[in-house]
Amino acid sequence: MSATETFDAAKARPLWHRIVVRPESVTLLLLIAAVFVSAWLSPFFADLRFVLESATFYIEFGIIALMLTLVVVSGEIDLSVAATMALSACLFGIAHRAGLGMPVAILIGLGSGALMGLFNGVLVTVFRLPSIIATIGTMVLYRGIAQVIAGDRSVGGFPDWFVGIDFIAVGIVPVPVIIFVVLAILLGLVLGSTLFGRQIYQTGTNPIAARHAGIRVDRLKMILFTASGLTSAVGGLLMASRLGVVRYDLATGGELQVVLIVMLGGTYIFGGRGTIAGTFLALWLLIIIQTGMTVANIAIEAQLTVLGLLLILAIISANAIYAGGRR
Amino acid sequence: MKKLMLIASAAAIGLMAGAATAQDQVEIVYIPKNTGNPYFDSIIGGFADACAELGCSFTTVAPATAEATSQIPFITAQIQRGVDVIAISPNSPDALNQVFDRARSRGIQVLIVNSDIPGSEDHRDAAILPVDFTTIGPAQVELLGSMINYDGEIAILSATTDAPDQNVWIADMQTVLESDDAYADMELVTIAYGDDDPQKSTTEAEALLANYPDLAGIISPTTVGVAAAAQVVETAGRAPDLQVTGLGTPNQMRRFIENGTVEAFQLWSPYNQGVLAAHFAMGVNDGSITNEPGQTFDVPNLGTITIGDDNVILTQDQPTTFNADNIDDFNF
After folding, report:
1. Residue A304 contacts B, CB cutoff 8 Å
2. How many CB pairs under 8 A join A and B?
């Protein structure tokens, strides 16, 4: 019975249709359009070195967005990512200031991020809180702790080798961009071609059915939240390196940027659908649009309007395509 | 790969267009803290008028929020545009250091306007300050004291918790309140932060009135905050018993002076800062000004200006007090 249905669905949507009509295609088309519009808007835009350099301002959020894609596909959300960035970076900075040495300080930064993610996971799987509520709570909590421990001043004085990772480039590609691309390939493989990835999709599509199918849903979500905390800490350390200082208000409002990237990439907010490719393209779309308009001296109000319209367009088309695919 | 080819082909188009629009004028860009703050519009006006006179090309761009890192993409974009001078009112005392260094390594003059970056002076060429800032805190306390007979509870409504200039003034206010016997009966009960956002400043001012019913005075050393506090006090009808003062622009505060809600407030001329910064930038650019402490230069209507220690340049010595007698002389 179910085999016949699958066969029918495949017949209804030929291969080319399945490849072309996807939310990511919309993102890709927008990206191509954005490149041309940006080059047309300002003669200063079309310089690959400049675009890659500007990309480093958004890469930190992009790395987190990759991991958040998996979280969203599993049917959850993590809004504490930016606060996790700030708190883990502050812990790292304070550990360094206390004279613990850079390797230990970096481990403390990463480890604390993973712990913060784990705590989110516990709230969601053990205490059964909806993740949107739980992570809004921890968003405020982590930011608050960061303010308590770091106070209202910058923590800096890092060694020269640590500061300015965005200045270090292989050819003309800055290191953070390379990290982003490698992580995208890695997570793309995890989500797209592993059993774990299929379990993420199944959990997001129908958690009860997934549980009955023998998937350890709670364990899976715990892993995803912990990984989200860890990647947020990586983002925080990259930002610390780029700025040379850490503060409690690092990446304020960043969670919205991260969610925007994931949504722009066509990932379905209620779970079960979405790809790393979409998020990957969405980050570049955001970079091109923001950089293109900024270098053209376009007023920020207009920039935000364009971003808002694009997001709505992306969500409408993603919903339409998903609805069409189900038919 | 496809994207690379696209960008490469776009680059070719871009280079041709770039050659056609190249110009010889000195290009100055000014980046305020954020958009929608009328205070910075006066600085922009000063730049624009001075540039019209001096023959420089002037533009201004700003981020939507005054968050510490929000100006970085704008600075990078201006480096890419190849401007000669970046004047900026920074949102952070140190988060911009790396990008300032990058701008200066490309031969761009980096001028801090309106507030310095304490501890990071090595990362900019000079700082144009509106007034001798050490006089602000004591002058504000004295002004409020004279309005409340040097007696009662007072509160401060500031900008963001990490606004570098406001924090220095508040520290000075606290020092003078504690050390000067004239202020022995004035008690600072709290410091609130309105983030230079009209809505948040209004909410914080309302909270001050609700939490401290005996409050005698509010000092708000930020233009957004003082206007919000005056509005709240006017709406609540607390005007004669609760005095508001602070740093505000005449145009924003004119209504409150005229209807008696506010007796007096202080400021300097942000417009003059823009004029001074443009003259300084052009002078350094053409070699007529040497950017070293102790050097002097003349600016029309502002007189002889001296470059101070750490390349700090003061536009005026003391803040100006505005009240019903003189406010009609000012329009900014």
Report:
1. yes
2. 119
Give residue for tokens 């029918």. Answer: A8
Q: What is the pLDDT of residues A171-188, one digit of tens each?
A: 999 999 999 999 999 999
- Judged by a CB distance cut-off of 8 A, whether residue A227 touches chain B is no
Tell me how far the alpha carbon of residue A308 is from its chain's centroid.
18
Inform me whether the C-beta atom of residue B15 falls under 8 Å from chain A C-beta atoms.
yes
Compare A208 and B12 and report the one with higher pLDDT: A208
Task: Kindly state the tokens that stand for B206.
Answer: 């309302």
| Separation of alpha carbons B219 and B154, rounded Å | 8
Assessment of whether the complete model's pTM goes beyond 0.80? no
Q: Name the residue ranges covered by the structural domains of chain B.
A: 23-133+270-317, 134-267+322-329
Interface test mutation site (partner A, options B41, B78, B81, B102, max chain A beta carbons within 10 A): B81
E strands, chain B, in order? 27-31, 57-60, 85-88, 109-113, 126-131, 152-158, 186-193, 215-220, 243-246, 264-267, 296-299, 303-306, 312-316, 320-323
Q: How far away is chain B from the Cα of A22, in angstroms, using its nearest Cα?
A: 19
Domain B23-133+270-317: CATH superfamily is Response regulator (3.40.50.2300)
For residue A270, pLDDT beyond 60: yes
Per-residue confidence (pLDDT) for residue A3, from 0 to 100? 43
Low-confidence ranges of chain B (pLDDT < 70): 1-23
pLDDT score of A12:
64
ipTM over 0.95: no
Instruction: Output the CATH code of domain B134-267+322-329.
Output: 3.40.50.2300
Q: State whether A253 and B67 contact (CB < 8 Å).
A: yes
Q: Is there a contact between B73 and A294 if contact means CB atoms under 8 Å apart?
A: yes
Asked if B77 is an interface residue toward chain A (Cβ–Cβ < 8 A), one would say yes
